[in-house]
Write a structure and sequence with these properties.
alpha/beta; five-stranded parallel sheet; 5 helices; binds calcium ion
Length: 130
């Protein structure tokens, strides 16, 4: 499984990626929306972790752009109090969200659940697994 982490705070971004790698996932990192779109256009990912608060193209707009080109599962990373943004993120096609600050076990649980759900969806749609 290969994941893309999009978060402009480099330390947090690397930290998330490191924890994913320790759990056996491949994880790439990206610190801005435009670069993320370029990566998504050429690379294949099984899941995207997308921070809502990004400079330039923000998480909600980025989510909509990703959905124009891909059905890759998206988990939004949001801060407390961003309820309206969270809702619009889900409306833009995000599959789930995690509220910051979050622990590694919650993040991994949400990643697993979202991957499992997208896998089931793929199978029920009759497309090939992986
Ligand atoms: Ca951020």
């Amino acid at each position: 499984m290969r994941l893309l982490v999009i978060e402009d705070e480099c330390d947090l971004c690397e930290d998330i990626a490191k924890k994913l790698r320790l759990s056996g996932y491949e994880a790439d990192t990206c610190v801005d929306g435009e670069a993320a779109l370029e990566l998504l256009a050429v690379e294949k990912y099984d899941l995207v972790l997308l921070d809502l608060m990004l400079p330039g193209l923000d998480g909600t707009a980025l989510c909509r752009r990703i959905r124009e080109q891909s059905r890759v599962p998206i988990i939004m990373l949001t801060a407390k109090g961003e309820t309206a943004d969270r809702v619009s993120g889900l409306e833009m096609g995000a599959d789930d969200y995690i509220v910051k600050p979050f622990g590694v076990s919650e993040m991994l649980a949400r990643v697993r659940t979202t991957l499992r759900r997208s896998d089931r969806l793929r199978l029920s749609q009759g497309s090939q697994k992986d």
